[in-house]
Write a structure and sequence with these properties.
This protein is α/β, with parallel strands linked by helices and 267 residues long. The chain contains 6 helices and 11 strands. Helices cover 28% and strands 18% of the residues. The protein is globular, with a radius of gyration of 18 Å. Bound molecules: zinc ion (ZN). GO terms for molecular function: hydrolase activity.
Length: 267
Amino acid sequence: MLKPVAEGVRVRRSEFCQTNTVVVDGDAGVLLVDPGILDGELSTIAGELSAAGQPVAAGFATHPHWDHVLWHPGFGSAPRFATARAAAAIEAFLADAAWRERVAPMIPADIAERVPLTLFGELTALPERAEWIPWDGPRARVVEHRAHAAGHAALLIEERGVLVAGDLLSDVLVPLVDHSAEEPIEDYLAALTLLEGIADGVEVVVPGHGSVTGPDGLRERIDLDRAYLLALRDGRDPLGDPRLGPDAVYDWVAGVHERQAVLLARR
Ligand SMILES: [Zn+2]
């Protein structure tokens, strides 16, 4: 079930990695952000929307990672927007005839058969430096930055006080930096500053993975992500980070942290 988190904004959490699908009601259909993961979940969302007489008017992928660029035939053929940089990254990936073999190791084996790749990554590039999603509905501001992945963008639905954060500001995952970037940690810190700058008026934050939070949670998560990144940059242990250690929701996050610390130390 899609659950309301603000007027005209609903969220559904996937069983995979607490991935959040976001649906924003528009004038003639919905904006579907990061549609979801498992075939059954996607078709349930499609069924729920069609039963409510709400076609998908537009899609948006916050960034070009496999778990944010899936689709389902039930959503129809609306444009699936992404930043120009994100769309270019996926296009380059799909240009390799062996992309299916390349994507396979990214998907956990236990869910692989339930992840539909038929319409994978068929994104429409927004113009360079586009400020808004072109659709009939509450204005959705594109907040592009360089943290986590090329062309990552958060969406700010100002009229609804909702920030759709993509893979930042999670309470279950530590910040995962883009290792292909020249300055991955500085890029991430800059993105947090950018989000901090638009925090006024945000009442609801929906992260790509994890629980929805409010204005206090937004500031806490910015601080927590920043503290983690500074520890990573300085080669310290991010002591007390609740996403690591014994009370972590996912025990594998500690391993991901160790790997990225090693990769960064090698630079
Ligand atoms: Zn990601």
